[in-house]
Amino acid sequence: MINFGTSPDKYTFPYVVKACGGLNAINLGKWIHTTIRDIGLETDMFVGSSLIKLYSDNNCRYDAQSVFDKMSQKDCVLWNVMLNGYVKNGEVSYAIELFRKMINTENKPNSVTFACVLSLCASDVMIGFGTQNHALVIKYGLEMDSPVANTLLAMYAKCRHVSDSRKLFDSVPKSDSVTWNGMISGFVQNGLMLDAQNLFRDMICSGVKPDSITFSSFLPSISESENLDHCKEIHCYIIRNSVKMDVYLKSALIDIYLKCRDVKMVSKIFKQRTTIVDIVIYTAMISGYVLNGMNWDAVEIFRWLMENKMKPNSVTLASILPATACLAALKLGKELHSYILKNGYEKKCYVGCALMDMYAKCGRLDLCHQIFEGVSDKDTVCWNSMITSFSQNGKPEEAIDLFRKMGLERAKYDYVSLSAALSACANLPALQSGKEIHGFMIRNLLSSDLFAESALIDLYAKCGNLELSLHVFTRMKTRNEVSWNSIISAYGNHGRLKESFDMYYKMLELGLQPDHVTFLSLISACGHAGKVDEGAHYFHSMTEQYGITARMEHYACMVDLYGRAGHLKEAFEIVKGMPFEPDAGIWGTLLGACRVHGNVDLAELASERLFELDPQNSGYYVLLSNLQADAGRWENVLRVRSLMKERKVNKVPGYSWIEVNNQTHLFFAADGSHLQSDKIYDLLKYLLLEMQREGYVPLLHGRVQAPGWHGSCRI
């Protein structure tokens, strides 16, 4: 055009600038902007509007603002373009300031203006500002406008004001599927799955035809209940009515079938051809495979999409990280972490939480905590992840301290926070801290959650107060398998085997199915009580009657059951008959039983495996050394100690603690650091003399206590 000598005018430039935006050619756009400025068209309404949109879409806020400020005349469209630019770029404060300026001018906001501002309120959960804008919508007579009404509906739903959302839904015309979709999505987002299903039926009865967005919003309500038949009914409706199978609907179907454990159907849907191959579908597949424990399959899909130059987004990465955590694949996890840093995803809270979980499960609690500290805007999930990681990795004191810090930072506690903190108190054990959390739950009406109450049962039982455990259990309004498992375990750990069995049979009478934890508690209780036949009965009942596959911990309990009773041959047969390789915990349990019953030959066999599986654990060396000493095999004692020295294995001193008047007193082996140590040793000597008068004969061999052992008692 220019080469032919025709000068561009104010109608030419908007199209040229729009083309630059379509090509993301911001530098070319700036060059054209210079030309526009030179010929005096920068302040033209249409040209200026196109420039502002170009800069806003490419995150050039200052350039957009500069053009906007130069405009002498601003109509509603121009205000909307600038406002939309701020909203798209997450410039919340600038967007609100600009909107307030706009309503103070002669320009009246229209439906586009309100749809833009209200979407901001929904994404940032600013219910107060959103309600004010609702009043303005009514003032300007736009409450029946479909885009505005739908945005208001979404805002109330996302701000968890579902009742207001429903009132609005009932008051506006519902001529198309958009309004129905918004309300169904709002119910699902707030966990009101039954309401979502009822509304879906009402939609069909009213004659409004559901579209792909309807099903994408509605299907999660089915997957929540994991109802496979219902899932298939919906899928059949989609096929019969030729609903367009877009990326989001395909992803939703994959997600629901994976949650219903129908992997075969998932494979069929995944292989169906669609016009667009999208990362959303692959993310759904990865997430579903992880949910079903198919972690290697999830990793393979991730590798495939990387090899085919598909760029994973932050959700994809947050979905694949749990697979590396379950596989304890630290090297792969670090590679993913590196990719996350290169692409700037580390600031997203849910990505940070997935990284924290991965490092914690791979035994790198230091890196887990480092990432936690680096998250600037921590939400409740982030705090919960770190507290749980501390609690599950032998750092209960740190977990409790972080729980308190969470409160000081005014982060909102939920049932996961409370359960994790109570679990940490149980592991310490710290009865007073647990009681404080219990009090907090009662004061803040948080004591009705099944999992938090079950954690309370476990806490009081581990702190030696079975009466309080039973009190919490009996006051529960509803009970699930976790609640019953907790009270069964509580009785079992206190040697109350009859009551433990009674609770199990009451659970069955109520129609609740036992799970792998139930049988773990029962077998463990039998082991503590020395009831070998009963323990074996429950193990076989679990596998044969209920079809529950025995896990590593069940075999460990069976080895302990036979080992405590002195049936070392049967214990070893259990180890040999395992369908998978026994871990260090299994062999360690067998070694402990050999130590108690003096079986040196079997102990040496167990030790060989332990020194291969966990060569730096000093406890196993000391157990074998003590056993050799008991048998008078002093050459073997020297050999074990030399092996420790050769492998640079350091002995961890044994310790115990006692809580007196809410103060914890810690004691190491041969400790003399306590302020009252003289009195304590005098009392010990007195007690030993009394025990000897009663016929106690001290064990002369194997004086060394196993390092790493610790215990606790309470007054």
Describe the fold and architecture.
The chain is mainly α. 69% of the residues lie in helices and 2% in strands. The chain contains 39 helices and three strands. A three-stranded mixed beta sheet has the order 2-1-3, with no helix packed on it. A hairpin with a 2-residue loop joins β1 (655-660) and β2 (663-668). α30 packs antiparallel against α31. The longest helix is centred in the last third of the chain and has 17 residues, at 677-693. The N and C termini lie far apart (93 Å).
Short description:
With 715 residues, this protein is mainly alpha-helical. The protein has 39 helices and three strands. The model is unreliable at 701-715 (pLDDT under 50).
SS content category: mainly alpha
Mean pLDDT: 85
What gross morphology would you assign? elongated
Helix proportion of residues, in percent?
Answer: 55-70%
- How many extended strands? 3
